[in-house]
Amino acid sequence: MARGAPALWSTLLGLPFVVVGGWLYVGQTTYPSVIGLPFAFFGAFVVGIGAYVHVVSPTEPRLSDGEELVEKRHPTQRVARVKIVVGLPLLVATIYLLFFTTVPYVYPTATFVVGLYAFSSGLYTYWTNSLTTYYVTTRRIIKEYRFLSLVRREIPREKIRGVQERKSAIEALVGLGNVLVASGGGRSLEIRMRNMERSESFADSIRNLVSES
């Protein structure tokens, strides 16, 4: 199962769109009922993807003889929550401005575009983080992601040439960071670990592992 409860949270976030879409389609007569369909379809999409994410997750890597798991990490959901919390009020404001006021359409259009972008970006980040797992073993650094198929990237310990820490503005604000592990063989041998709690200590643990090789 995916970490967290993506089916539950996606349902809680998607159902309001289905309800609003249903009300616009059958519960009001001021505007064409067809405008309710995009809301309903979007809400159903959110609920459906959340249910799918809930039953899909990366598989544990198979360790070789003598190899031990040092640390297992998941991205946190703080960045996703910030984006969703920013987007939701703007989408609610769009409904209010569009159907309960007489302000020019430019205002609800602006709140809709910005709110939908933040909300959708937050949902995408939440789903992606739910399906991503990072492993540090005595021999490898591994990143696994499964959506429609399994994507696994790994760098052997002896090939690691650099460990970097980076933070976006939002990550710095919520106390998270990214850890980039590179082999020196180009971008094809890089693993970027996003939205990590205690990223400094995690990067140090990887450096200590490399120094022991």
Describe what you observe in this structure.
- The protein is α+β, with helices and mostly antiparallel strands and 213 residues long.
- It has a domain at 1-51.
- Helix content is 51%, strand content 21%.
- The chain is built from six helices and seven strands, in the order H-H-E-H-H-E-E-E-E-H-E-E-H.
- The strands form two sheets. A four-stranded antiparallel beta sheet has the order 1-2-3-4. It has a three-stranded antiparallel beta sheet with strand order 5-6-7.
- The longest helix has 25 residues, at 106-130.
- The chain is elongated and about 70 Å long.
- The mean pLDDT is 86.
What is the H/E string? HHEHHEEEEHEEH
Strand line-up in the sheet with most strands: 1-2-3-4
Compute the average pLDDT: 86
Q: What can be said about the biggest beta sheet?
A: 4 strands, antiparallel
The residue fraction in helices comes out at: 40-55%
User: In what range is the share of β-strand residues?
Assistant: 15-25%
Return the structural class: alpha+beta
Q: N-to-C terminal Cα separation, in Å?
A: 34 Å
